[in-house]
Amino acid sequence: MVTLALGLGVVASAALGYAGPKAHSPAHWVHLSGLAGLLIEALVVVYALTALLGRGASGRVVATVLLALTIPSAHVNWSHVERFLATCELAERFAVLHVGAYEASAVRFAGGVGVALTAACVVWLGAQARAVRDVVSERKGRRDRWAAAIVPGALMILAASLGEWGVVFVASVALVLAGRPEERPVDTAGETAGEALATDHALPPATSAVASIAAVVMAFIASLARLSGREGFAWTDALTRSERAVALTSIGDARAITWGLGLAVITAALFGETMRYRRAAPAGPSRSARPRSATILAALLVATVASDAAYGLRVSAARRSVASALEGQFAFFAALGPPATHLPSELAPPPHAAAALQVSRDAVAVDGRRVARLDAIDTPAAQSAIANALCPAVAQRESQPPAPELSLLLDARTTVAVVGRLLALAAECGAGRVEMLLQKGEPPVLPRGAPPEAAFVIPSDFVAVRLRLSRVDGAPFHGGAEALARAAEGAVRAGSELAVRVGPPPAP
Known about the structure:
Elements: H1 2-16, H2 26-33, H3 35-52, H4 59-85, H5 90-104, H6 106-132, H7 138-160, H8 167-178, H9 195-201, H10 205-233, H11 241-280, H12 292-325, H13 327-334, E1 340-341, E2 356-359, E3 363-366, E4 369-373, H14 380-396, E5 406-410, H15 416-428, E6 433-440, E7 462-470, E8 475-476, H16 481-493, E9 498-501
Parallel strand pairs: 1-6, 2-5, 5-6, 7-9, 8-9
Antiparallel strand pairs: 2-3, 3-4, 6-7
């Protein structure tokens, strides 16, 4: 019966999923979680197999060990992410940090699911064992045993089918625990058809209460981990900038609902289990006694919650640090909407590292640092400021053919005059091989209530098309950013690159 209950619960959690292209694969959760995830899965499987073979495996022991494994695992995984971040350039850290959170949170999800399923099965079977003591008919006792195995998993599957929010997992466990039979002290004398089940699975009231609360709390942690995983995955190259904006808005709404409902469920569980324990615990001096298993389980649960909160603070601090360092670039790129393209990936590779010339709706930047206002580009001072920043940036980066010497990112509304001046300045600084960055997919339309980071850009949001600037060959180009993008795109489809002849920049 334990095996059936765990199997149904695993099916339910797999149907709900984690995040990413293999969200519904428990094997992928384990792959992301590393060694800790493998141990978590092995413990659940061992518990199910020993129960199937009638060896009387203790769910309390398994739940306790799972909690102990979950405490340090996310911190260990996040330490690996922090070490890798230290080797990345500043511009890459924001995306790397979020992808790292996606991978590091997988062990929180796997551990939360494992503890919640194990504890829910233990509590349900324990409650059914107490109920079976009063059963005279062996047939009815067998029916109650099947119910003890099927009901937890069936309720989880039903809840998981109602929507995609991680909170349904919390609600499903709450349904399981709220619906279990009332526990009460019983006379253990006598051997009836149902007493074997009662002996194997009955729990002391304190242990039952702590296990119930652990199931709900760990399901809540799994729900939060799932949202963190979805948020981190949104910053991978699997989503376009527009798709990421929609995903981040949806995740923000789901997180608010998850916190509200999750805390309400935990509060209800604490109140309900306290009242149930007061009714079920025996009167007299032994009432104040707490089984050792309940004490250990409660201590580990508190440690797990504290550890998970500390993990969240570590991730938040890292995000704030990187976001603060990139605040100027984020504000600049939020006002930049480059031309879009639907070129297949085999024709348009990802951008290469190079000196970057970027033009937003109101400013010109070199390597993400503003150097001139766009409305002043006709002035000698602005042209001199751009050249003084761009020429050293091009010269300091060693690039051998066919690597680009300049990365060009233009807002789609950049005019003919601005494009001509910038291309001439780039050629004057020695940039002949140029990659023009085009945005993958449609331009983003930020949904109402979208978080500020929904407007941010990362390198994987773009693909690169090649331009060749020359003063002696190629055809003069007279067009804005959108026309330049379409001409370069046409050259790529034809298997060549766009050659553009440029003249000297206007004299200051």
